[in-house]
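Tokens as discussed.
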């Protein structure tokens, strides 16, 4: 079992997909902690309902990103977490976590990166009048959705399609793709030479 922490800021439907996949034995991961920068968010409620430990903080209570990331890092170390899985975490990851988890922080974004990075990837695709968009799983670096791409899935935008419909189909793609790709990463890692 790979020990992971999932980072959320909102609804947490991707967190739920990961919880469900792990429960069903489809994802060889133990979710040790759910971290959130929004203390009241529904993702935390989902974690609590699943009996998963949580760490919530308000960034405004800290002078700098490094300060709350040190707190997170301490807890992650205690729990021996190996991978950080971002699932709707609306904050740039800073140097404290990036340096401690090189190539161990993964994110999902609702577009075919490098198109439509940052906030509201779905709205950006619609506003551009695009005929297709999709979902990207990638490693996290210091930029906004700029890290190396691991996997992508295309989603066609139907002519005249509204936001609700597209959003639903993108989320469905995310909930399929994310647990599957995480499983591949965790399984492959076991076969890499020299990896602990
Ligand atoms: C997803 O669309 C994800 O790609 C993006 O934020 C959204 C989070 O949704 N990074 P949820 O909180 O997992 O429901």
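Sequence:
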């Amino acid at each position: 079992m790979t020990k992971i922490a999932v980072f959320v800021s909102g609804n947490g439907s991707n967190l739920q997909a990961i919880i469900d996949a792990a429960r069903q034995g489809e994802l060889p991961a133990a979710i040790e902690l759910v971290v959130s920068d929004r203390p009241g968010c529904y993702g935390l409620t989902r974690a609590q309902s699943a009996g998963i430990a949580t760490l919530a903080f308000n960034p405004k209570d800290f002078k700098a990103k490094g300060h709350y990331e040190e707190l997170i890092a301490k807890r992650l170390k205690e729990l021996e977490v190996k991978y950080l899985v971002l699932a709707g975490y609306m904050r740039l990851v800073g140097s404290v976590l990036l340096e401690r988890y090189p190539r161990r922080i993964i994110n999902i974004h609702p577009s075919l990166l490098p198109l439509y990075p940052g906030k509201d990837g779905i709205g950006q695709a619609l506003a551009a009048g695009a005929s297709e968009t999709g979902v990207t799983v990638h490693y996290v670096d210091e930029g906004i959705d700029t890290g190396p791409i691991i996997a992508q899935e295309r989603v066609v935008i139907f002519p005249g399609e509204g936001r609700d419909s597209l959003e639903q189909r993108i989320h469905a793609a995310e909930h399929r793709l994310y647990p599957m790709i995480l499983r591949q990463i965790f399984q492959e890692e076991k076969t890499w030479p020299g990896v602990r």
